[in-house]
Amino acid sequence: MADVAADRDAIRDLLARYTYNGDRGRLAELAACFADDGVLDYPGASPTGPEAIAASLGSGTRDPRLTFVRHHITNPLIAIDGDQATARSYFAVHSNFGPDHSGTYDDRLVRTESGWRFAYRRVRVDWQAETSLFRRMATR
Q1: Whether residue 139 has pLDDT greater than 80
Q2: Are residues 124 and 107 in contact, defined by beta-carbon separation less than 8 angstroms?
Q3: Per-residue pLDDT tens digits for 47-98
Q4: DSSP of the chain, one letter per residue?
Q5: Cα 136 to Cα 129: distance, rounded to the nearest angstrom
């Protein structure tokens, strides 16, 4: 019999690992949160697989003033169905000048031999500050 509470806890841990690693620039560790054929669908790109995800996130130029990044995840709605799950969460990002951007994560997850991983993560940016140090990405 499945332990739904343990699965929910493991999925919340996955959401946090993605965020902590991304905020610290540890792209290989962030990408390891994805299944081998997992997709990260974010404004401007949809790489498939951990290697491509890390490469995509590491491409482009970064504003040198950007030295502080913190993603805050709230209200995760998690639904588990055997070895698959979905999650939807809000996120808010703070950077050097305060609130930077916010939006939603829509996730499909799969249980692998290594634990829960993202099969598909869609990042939707609903709002972005005029002073944002990130490239323009608002999708609303």
Answers
A1: no
A2: no
A3: 999 999 999 999 988 899 999 999 999 999 999 999 999 999 999 999 999 9
A4: ---HHHHHHHHHHHHHHHHHHHHTT-HHHHHTTEEEEEEEEBTTB--BSHHHHHHHHH-S---TT---EEEEEEEEEEEEETTEEEEEEEEEEEETTEEEEEEEEEEEEEEETTEEEEEEEEEEEEEE-TT-SSPP----
A5: 9
The tens digit of pLDDT for each residue in 104-114 reads 999 999 999 99
With beta carbons less than 8 A apart as the criterion, state whether 123 and 103 touch: yes
- Dihedral sign, Cα of residue 89, residue 70, residue 38, residue 111: negative
User: What is the C-alpha separation between 17 and 34, in angstroms, rounded?
Assistant: 11
Give residue for tokens 């609130």.
99
